[in-house]
Design brief:
Layout: H1 9-14, H2 26-67, E1 75-79, E2 95-104, E3 109-114, E4 120-124, E5 128-130, H3 134-140, H4 159-163, H5 166-182, H6 186-189
Length: about 200
């Protein structure tokens, strides 16, 4: 900070580390400090240049794919970035058109005109979006196929159950439940429920 190291509380207790840079005079210290700053700035510029090249490579790859999808006489929408004062941005138009591409100046620039006007203007490919007519939009929509529902198959009743009466079946099921409960340990069948601590002063009926 301000060209010098900040003194921390720990350094006040055990002392500061010995500096390897030895400057006998003030002018030597200034020159050494300027050289270190220049080295740090050079490293920062190199990293910044690498980041810019990497972002440009990604951007050019994306723009190349988008630009290849447009050709002359194609109809497109144009993004509207200008905002009208006094009107909510939610109520303003985000796209204007349709426009017709008249010339392709480069991979990123196109000359277009409105279908109802002869005025030409040059726009970047980032502001363009392909125009789709309502008929084409209806053809692009895929209607889901109707799924057939198979009728439910009736399960044949068990012969043993049909021969017996309804009451006899219930009695057998009840006996099975009693037998299974009898096999359980007695501490699980008759478990004592302890009341919560806050109910100890109350009389329970």
């Amino acid at each position: 900070m301000l060209g010098r190291e900040t003194t921390l509380p720990l350094e006040l207790m055990i002392g500061q580390p010995v500096s390897t840079v030895v400057a006998s005079t003030t002018s030597e210290y200034v020159m050494t400090f300027a050289q270190r700053c220049e080295k740090a700035f050079r490293i920062a510029r190199d990293h910044n240049t690498l980041g810019q090249k990497r972002q440009k490579r990604y951007y050019d790859a994306r723009i190349g794919k988008v630009a290849s999808s447009y050709s002359v006489q194609d109809k497109v929408w144009v993004a509207v970035h200008a905002k009208k004062k006094g009107r909510s941005p939610k109520l303003q138009l985000r796209w204007n058109g349709p426009f017709v591409i008249t010339h392709k100046l480069s991979d990123c620039l196109y000359r277009i005109r409105h279908i109802d006007s002869a005025k030409l203007k040059v726009v970047h490919v980032d502001r363009l979006k392909k125009y789709v007519t309502p008929d084409e939009l209806n053809q692009m929509t895929v209607t889901p196929e109707h799924t057939t529902v198979e009728p439910a198959t009736e399960i044949a009743p068990d012969k043993h159950i049909t021969d017996m009466g309804h009451e006899e079946v219930l009695e057998e099921e009840l006996e099975d439940v009693v037998e299974t409960e009898g096999e359980r340990p007695p501490e699980l069948l008759k478990r004592k429920r302890r009341p919560p601590v806050w109910m100890q002063d109350y009389e329970r009926y």
